[in-house]
Amino acid sequence: MSNISNESNVSNGPLRDNWSDFYNAVEHRPPHDTLLRALARFDGGPERQRFAIDLGCGSGRDTREMLRRGWQVLAIDREAEGLTRLMARVPAEQHDRLQTRAAAFEDLQTLPPCDFVNASFSLPFCTPAYFETLWAMIVAAIQPRGRFAGTFFGPHDGWANEPMMTFHTQAQVEGLLVPFKVEQLLEEDRDGSTALGNAKHWHTFQVVAFKPARP
């Protein structure tokens, strides 16, 4: 079982303002498990450069891994500081494969066609009123034989009463994944801690899903 306190892109609360402390806390942490599992499933595919979108990329722990493996990446986050830190840590020879965009989920009108959408611990921070629109954009952007990897928060999560966050039951997650073949759906419902060491109950659904080719 993964240690969620070492995985998450969040710290001591959903409306945290002190991003610098959070970025410092996670700076040297490895890529998220769901990302690594999804990337492993692309291994052995066609020899071509693939394009990924990293939604809610933070300071780029997942983006950097994709760049290291030769991917082209569009990294999106609402916090400009995270994107600045990402660019500072990406080797110069990889800059031509990286695009960044500072935008909240609610500001996104469309996403470009891609092979992979990664959303590690970020989608719950989309407001409920906009989540359906965001998810439809994600599904439309992922091309046949592409993948989604990410995490949904469940109703037992310690932040489940936050009105500006989005939470899903397992049945609701399964409904969202109908366009995909599910390769991993792992539920964790346990006490843990945040990136800054604060106690928190985590209820998550960690997902890797494949979009089949059209008939």
Task: Describe what this molecule looks like in 3D.
This protein is of the alpha/beta class. Helix content is 27%, strand content 27%. The protein has helices at 19-26, 33-42, 61-68, 80-89, 128-141, 170-176; strands spanning 51-55, 72-77, 98-102, 114-119, 142-153, 181-193, 199-210. Helix 3 (61-68) links the parallel strand 1 (51-55) and strand 2. The chain starts with 18 loop residues before the first helix and ends in a 5-residue tail after the last strand. Mean pLDDT is 88; it is low at 1-12.
- Overall geometry comes to globular
Name the CATH superfamily classification.
Vaccinia Virus protein VP39
Indicate the proportion of strand residues. Answer: 25-35%
Q: What is the total tally of β strands?
A: 7
Trace the largest sheet across and list its strands.
3-2-1-4-5-7-6
The number of distinct structural domains comes to 1
Treating each run of at least 4 consecutive H or I residues as one helix, how many helices? 6
Which sheet architecture does the biggest sheet show?
A: 7 strands, mixed
Q: How far from one another are the termini?
A: 37 Å
Structural category: alpha/beta
CATH topology: Rossmann fold
Poorly predicted spans: 1-12
Mean pLDDT: 88
